[in-house]
Structures are given as C-alpha cells and as structure tokens.
Amino acid sequence: MKKRFCIALFSSLLLIITAACGSGSQTSNIQLAEVTRSIFYAPQYVAIEKGFFEEEGLAIELQTTWGGDKTMTSLLSDGADIALVGSETSIYVQAQESKDKAINFAQLTQTDGTFLVAKAPKPDFKWEDLRNSTFLGQRVGGMPQMVGEYVLKQHDIDPHADLNLIQNVDFANIPGAFASGDAEYVQLFEPTASTFEKEGKGHIIASFGKESGHVPYTTFMAKESFMNENKETVKSFTKAVYKAQQWVQEHSAEEIAETIQPYFEDTEPEMLAASIDRYKSQDSFATDPILGKKEWNNLKDIMDEAGELPEDVPYDELINTKIAEEVIGN
C-alpha cells in the first residue's frame, strides 16, 4: 500500500513539474500575408505543414492579399506582421519616405517565377516571334512585368514599341482574361501555366526565370519597428524558413507536392509535382534565407531598365542579413 502511494505521489509530482516547465513556453502568433497563392512559394507551405514554425514556438495565420500594393498596405497598417512579397516593394515604400521602413530579412525565391504562355503551339519558338503580337502584361511596377520587360529587351524587343501590350487587368484576373480574350501571349505562374497547358488553353514556351538570372524575387519582410521589438520572434521565423528550404532541397518534387497539396486542392498531385520540378530545375527556390548584394543590384538594374527605380537604395539600407547568418551559423 505504501509503495502504491509513493508511486502515485511521484507521478503527481512529475505532472506538476512538467506542467510548470511547459507553462514557461509561449506561442507567438504571426499574421503572415502572402502576395499570391503559388507553388512558387512551396518552401513556405512546407514550413507550415511540416511543423517547422510550430517547433520554433510560432503559430502562423496565413492570408493571401493578392498583389504587391495590397500586401504592403496590409503590412504598413499592421494588418500583417510579416509579408511575403517582391523585394521591390520595400524600395517603393522607402521612396515614399515612410517613417517605418520595410526590411527584407529572409529570401524565399531567387528567380522570376513566371513562364511565357502562348495561345497556339510554338514548337520552334523564337523570341522575335513576339514582335507585333498582343501580349497580356502584368501590373506596372511589379516584378513579373519588370522582369518580363528586362528579358524582352535582352532579346532586342521593345515591349512598348514592338508589342500590343495590355496592362489594365488586375493581377488576380490575368489568367481568366487571357483565356477569354484576344491576347496571344501572357506571363503566368505555376500551377496556372501547367493547368492551362493541360486544358488546351495555352502552351508553355519559355521561362522568364531562366532568362533573367538570380534576383530577390520574393522575400519575407517586416517593418523595422516590428523587427526591433521582436528580434527573437523574427529569428525563430527565419529558422523555420531555413529548415523548410533545406527540406525542399533534400526531397523529391513528388514528396513536396504531397506536403503542400492542402494549399492547392484543385490541382492534381502529378501537376503539382511537375510544377515543383520545373521550379527546382531552374533553381527558383533559394537554398538559404540570405539575400545577397549581387542579387539586390540585379533587382535595381531590372527596375532601372523598366524606368521604375525611384531612387538608388544602398544594400544595407533595406536588407538585414544578420539574422539569417546567425541562423545558418547555428
């Protein structure tokens, strides 16, 4: 009887100690705004689904804000703590002399994520075939449009003089406008590009990511004030991102597709895997969260070429690599 009492007492004490230790760990809620829903952001969804954020004591509340302007409005108005968006938006905010800078602290993708899609099959496509065609473009000042113009100019095509360029369609409505309209070409992200190809609405004929080289296409950023007040939270967030980036590098497109399927319920697993493989093959997914100076300068060159660089912002002004470097070092 005495032995049973001792065992029961020990078990009770163990439960109390465990509860006391657990009560010290707190979960931080993070409002995360993504600029669009895309397979291009696979590592982000992997970080959520594999519990990497949870392991770092973070609860992610993900919202899709559909467009760079809406995403930055959400971030600057405290509708989001962290935003996944094109790094060019931080330059636009800086040019408006915002009191609270948008700081890039972790890079997710390192190439353009769009593909050139044609209405008709183009087995022998050459870039010069675009001359005098009707091209459904992206939002003025956004990364897809600027990279698109940059690539076209590399092939001696002036997008405004040599094309019938349409730019009055909202980002979210571009796929539908291409399918129902008269445009012969369009830039599309995955899985939309592959879906169109399967349904016979279009044909993937080139990759803007392969043509443009490395650029900080989408990064995680936060207001400078948030980063100063939540240094450990931002570090934990970056740790989770890095874990996901490594996981994506080490696993097959099929395994990644299975993991992120909940975010693309209307897309077949085989198509998801094909899209992921296409991105992996052109090194679109960054292997670590550090945004390099060469990539930043490439971004500014692309913006300048498009006439959209409001001012020359030095690398150290809007980039924080210290957190990512600490994460990788540990």
UniProtKB/TrEMBL annotation:
Entry keyword Electron transport: no
Organism expressing this protein natively: Lentibacillus salicampi
Pfam families: NMT1_2
Similarity remark: Belongs to the bacterial solute-binding protein SsuA/TauA family.
Cell location: Periplasm
Protein name per the record: ABC transporter substrate-binding protein
The keyword Signal belongs to this UniProt entry's keyword annotation: yes
Keywords: Signal
GO cellular component: periplasmic space
SUPFAM superfamilies, per database record: Periplasmic binding protein-like II
Organism superkingdom: Bacteria
Main location: periplasm
Cleavable signal peptide: 1-22
